[in-house]
Amino acid sequence: MKITVLAGGVGGARFLLGARHWLRDASVDPAADLTAIVNTADDLWLAGLRITPDLDTITYALAGVNDTSRGWGRAGDSEVVNGELAAWGVAWPWFTLGDLDIAASVARTAWLREGVPLAEVVARLGARWELGVRLLPATGDEAETIVHLAQPTDDGRGELHFQEWWVRYRAALPATSFEVRGAEVAHPSDGVLEAIRDADVVLLAPSNPVVSIGPILAIPGIREALRSTAAPVVGVSPIIAGSVVRGMADACLTAIGVATTADAVARLHGSRAAGGLLDGWLVDTADADVVDGLVADGIPARAVPLWMTDPSTTAQLVDAAVALAS
Asked: For the segment 123-138, what is each residue's pLDDT rounded down to a tens digit?
């Protein structure tokens, strides 16, 4: 079985840990293959280094070296270099990088400047660990999320890079829209379209639908590949009982006029039979009352426990997604 997952951030990392756990179970095909197409629109240049937050978060989580208390970075990391950079004014005091993070970014930047594609860079960085998942950046081109604000900042800016809006302002500045700047001329990384085309199942992780899954879909060719693949496409709701599981996805959904509910996010993606993406959608048992309405709208749905408390519990969620697909 070949499973391809679209993912970003902490939610994507937790889901992939569960998918890997499920695939390693003795009852699953030992030749099974797991590929993740990861959001790259959070990426940015900082102090001359190319930073890739979602790719790093997922890599560290699969490697078992992530800082679970903070939700980002490496466990036990120090911040000596970041403090020095901030003292010289070449780093943001609100965007902290650990020393091990910076080392990874130095290696990544060196390879990128040598002309190595980002997909190969990701493979090199992950090769020191046994990840159990093939990670593919959605694109190797620079296509970054820009947040358009309802009101200018105190220094007169009407737009911010997503990282500043998310980390510095905690999504508290009302947004009017999100733009993946550069997406229109970007290309999917090598292997991305094939991973969708050749999959037996495609899963949308419970990542932020606007700024994690949305930017992946904005890369030309990816949405079309999802619509044309023979594989069923099943998504997992990132909303439980009207609340986000993690982060500030509600601020993102509000900005684009979508309610913070499990069924509203499903309708945002749409039924593949009606020109959308979904062949199935999982909601939490707390949202079981929306299942019938989604089915009536052409989106097969099922209510199962969605809280990803540990890889074993998340594996049951992955099993339910695959079962719905089949």
From this structure: 999 999 999 999 999 9
